[in-house]
Amino acid sequence: MQPTPARRGTRRLARCAAAALAAFLFPALSHAHSIAGDRVFPATMAIDDPGVGDELNLQYGHQRVPGDDGDQSVNTFSFEYDKLITPRLAVSIEGAYVGQNNPTAHGFDNFGVGLKYLLYVNEAHEFMTSVGVNADLGGTGSHAIGESFSTISPSIFAGKGFGDLPDSLAYLRPVAITAEVGPSFTTGSGQPNAFNYGFTVQYSLPYLQQHVHDAGLPQPFANLIPIVEIPLSRSQGQTTGTVNPGFIWINRYGQLGIEAQIPVNRASGSRVGVLVQAHIFFDDIAPTTIGKPLFP
């Protein structure tokens, strides 16, 4: 039997009430910085997300990669601070302290600056795209780690959530993909350029709970986003990169993340590495002070 118009209206009202209740019960994601409709794109670790925000990212990475005298272990402690100039435009500064063996060296890598603009958002289809440029400034790091030349990298960023799928595919609605693509140009004579690209696949359990079906997941699972990132780079005819499966735990004020780094080939590394992230959303913690755009 087909439901009557009155019953359909009651069901719609019930769904709206459930969505409102979910937003109240899960304030963690209601004000996050990178939003398209119901979709929250987390700040991913290896592929930059498609949004802009006022935020601080702290990250540790460990990899074992090929060196001039055999494999070497590389440990990296990095930071990135993004500041909103307007609600759509952000500037960034980043740096990393690197320690390696074979040969042994440690110190700061070159510091970087960036500019990123939120180009387009389609709320109904959970789509977002941005453009940006980053520059690693040659000679600003230690002589043991940093390069003498600069690198300039313009990029395009995009994200698409699948919340617009039909009811028959409702359990695929929590899926989202993001991507980043762009060249990397060096200023040093004889230094190779590169083409960087990659994508992520995510399944948002908060989205499942709030917009598909409340499965009654306890914490910390209710705020987990299982994710796979695949960052790649091609230079001088050789492709390098990793496959990074992991998890991000997100709430209103920030997120924590961990990923494995599985080399795609021998040139990319000899063992599985790790990325660990702590990310703070200043635009949600202090929206009227430090997290406020300079020109609202």
Could you give the topology of this structure?
Layout: H1 5-25, E1 35-36, E2 39-40, E3 55-67, E4 70-86, E5 89-100, E6 105-108, E7 112-122, E8 127-136, E9 151-161, E10 175-186, E11 194-203, H2 205-212, E12 224-235, E13 238-251, E14 254-263, E15 273-281, H3 282-285
Antiparallel strand pairs: 1-2, 3-4, 3-15, 4-5, 5-6, 5-7, 7-8, 8-9, 9-10, 10-11, 11-12, 12-13, 13-14, 14-15
Structure description:
- This protein is mainly beta and 296 residues long.
- It has one domain: Porin.
- Helices cover 11% and strands 50% of the residues.
Shape: globular
Taking strands numbered 1, 2, ... along the chain, how are they ordered across the largest sheet? 3-4-5-7-8-9-10-11-12-13-14-15
Order of helices and strands: HEEEEEEEEEEEHEEEEH
| Radius of gyration (Å) | 21 Å
Helix content: 10-25%
Known CATH architecture? Beta Barrel
- In total, the number of strands is 15
Please report which band the strand proportion falls in: under 5%, 5-15%, 15-25%, 25-35%, 35-45% or over 45%.
over 45%
Number of domains: 1
